[in-house]
Amino acid sequence: MAPSAIAPEDSPERQIFVRKAAVHSRSHRSFGSSVASIRLNDGNSIPQVALGVYKAPNSKETEDAVTAALDAGYRHIDSAARYANEEACGRAVRRWLEKTGTRREDVFICSKLWDADHGYEATVKALCSSLHKFGLDYLDLYLIHSPAEDEEKRLQSWRALETAQKLGMVKSIGVSNFGAAHIKNLLRYATVVPAVNQVEVHPFCQREALVELCNKNGIKIEAYSPLARGNKLKDPTINAVAQKYGKTPAQILLNWNASRGNVVLPKSLTASRIQSNLESFNFQLAAEDIQTINALGSENYVTGSMHKSED
Ligand SMILES: NC(=O)c1ccc[n+]([C@@H]2O[C@H](COP(=O)([O-])OP(=O)(O)OC[C@H]3O[C@@H](n4cnc5c(N)ncnc54)[C@H](OP(=O)(O)O)[C@@H]3O)[C@@H](O)[C@H]2O)c1
């Protein structure tokens, strides 16, 4: 059982959890890269860091970024139908697999169902369209991008995801932007517990109650906008910690998130940043520094998140 999201970092509970998690993550699928992987509640493994591609164009620029990420050691790409770049991501992934002789199962590809496609039939159609655009036989993870307004359609969408998982069109299924009420409502209805909830999480937006609810139910947190969209890189606390470790502020933000056991999804189209973001996980923040960062904030959204924690 994961410790409470608000358990002190140096508590015996959290230390035991961290040790167990380290042993656990070494003991399963590694994706042939140095990036740690985490076990999901359905038994599948997920690489803990992904290249996010929000606002990346459906063009060579994104193909180059995805290729640079895979060359650097990323094995996980986080896209969405809404980002309208599934073709570019798919082209880059397929080309890279062929070039390097890497197996399809050694990369992890995520896409998301957009709000306009809720409902059983529409969801199946949207997933088929995403698969077609990627040029892949299956996705590793497919998420409901946001709960949207229509509860009945949302639940039908979840039923379609459960069927798609059974059919092998997608290995794992999950949600995004679900607040506590959405999660509780879905859990009453679902046959399959979502593997992840992808939400905005970084030191300025920690969402402790939502994270704790997800942890308790075995739903892994995927932290989006883990760099706070670059808006907090001048924060004095983050900079003081960065200076202490000889790291960049971005690396401190990413390390903090991973130290909580979250999957992190930094977005960059810049090769040097793609590389340095991946180098954020080879050091350990001391408990006192984690405590200092924990004091920074709880719900300061940089994305104007569609749905808050308690929704
Ligand atoms: N499910 C959802 O509703 C949802 C919502 C938001 C995001 N996401 C996912 O999460 C991913 C990341 O979130 P995000 O794109 O909102 O923001 P983010 O990753 O927090 O920040 C991205 C911004 O930071 C810059 N950046 C990246 N690395 C940097 C570094 N080392 N130093 C300085 N600046 C750096 C990037 O610029 P360059 O590209 O120019 O390097 C970009 O402007 C998305 O791409 C998407 O996959 C999901």
TrEMBL record:
<keyword id="KW-0560">Oxidoreductase</keyword>
<feature type="domain" description="NADP-dependent oxidoreductase">
    <location>
        <begin position="54"/>
        <end position="296"/>
    </location>
</feature>
<dbReference type="InterPro" id="IPR036812">
    <property type="entry name" value="NAD(P)_OxRdtase_dom_sf"/>
</dbReference>
<feature type="binding site">
    <location>
        <position position="145"/>
    </location>
    <ligand>
        <name>substrate</name>
    </ligand>
</feature>
<comment type="similarity">
    <text>Belongs to the aldo/keto reductase family.</text>
</comment>
<dbReference type="InterPro" id="IPR018170">
    <property type="entry name" value="Aldo/ket_reductase_CS"/>
</dbReference>
<dbReference type="InterPro" id="IPR020471">
    <property type="entry name" value="AKR"/>
</dbReference>
<feature type="site" description="Lowers pKa of active site Tyr">
    <location>
        <position position="112"/>
    </location>
</feature>
<feature type="active site" description="Proton donor">
    <location>
        <position position="83"/>
    </location>
</feature>
<dbReference type="Pfam" id="PF00248">
    <property type="entry name" value="Aldo_ket_red"/>
</dbReference>
<protein>
    <submittedName>
        <fullName>Oxidoreductase</fullName>
    </submittedName>
</protein>
<dbReference type="GO" id="GO:0016491">
    <property type="term" value="F:oxidoreductase activity"/>
</dbReference>
<dbReference type="InterPro" id="IPR023210">
    <property type="entry name" value="NADP_OxRdtase_dom"/>
</dbReference>
